[in-house]
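Re: weekly structure request thread

Next one in the queue (143 aa):
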Amino acid sequence: MKAVTLLATCAVLLACATPYQHMGLGGGFTDKQLGPDTFKVHFRGNGYTPDKRAQDFAVLRAAELTLQHGYQYFTVLNVGSSDRGFVAPITGTVVGNTVIATGGGLYHFPGTDLVFRCSHEKSPDAQDAKYVSWLVRATYDLR
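Done, posted below.
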């Protein structure tokens, strides 16, 4: 019975887009401090995560780190994609003279990498971390 419950739970978790969370089995974010005011954020989504969501969650993490370190603004210095994809094989079961194919297909795992610098002053390219955090959280109904 425990195995059935575990499998059902895993199926539900994997069938949803990656939530905003630290990196886990189904994706999430990681971050690294590169200097006193410079950071790198990586967000990886699962196969159900749209590219835009992965990008927005990377930006949300940048805003959070900015605020956590006592800054108000952040400027993205470099943005990159670290998408991954793979082709899953088609498997089949023979029923009588018919092969019932299951699985298979191309799976896309979006990834976004940001390098950004935090600041206390607003520059032309700087984003207001409080506003960005509020906007992304409101867009995805995050608490």
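Residues 3-14 have pLDDT under 50 and may be disordered. The chain has one domain: 2-139.
Next request, please.
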